[in-house]
Amino acid sequence: MLIIKILSVFAFIGSLAWFISTPDFEPAITTITSLSAFIVAWFVENKRKQKSTQEQTVGNNSVGIQSGGDVNIGNIRLKQETKKDAE
Fold first, then answer.
1. Mutual angle of helices 2-21 and 25-49, in 10-degree steps
2. What is the pTM of this model?
3. How buried is residue 48: exposed, middle or buried, by Cβ count under 10 Å (0-12/13-18/19+)?
């Protein structure tokens, strides 16, 4: 991530120098884009540092499923009943 930050700083400095030497539409867009890339590089790292905290309490004879997103499950009881029938 450090390399991305360093490259985004150099890109911003280069595009800013280009905009100062030739004030035009294209250097202005390049300067804004490189500045936004630098800002995003800092925010992405801060988001990665935040830990996902999930807590779950499961009672006796139950099944707990945790995921970082949506979970769709079928009938869990059906699978347990087929195992009992096989015995």
1. 160
2. 0.50
3. exposed
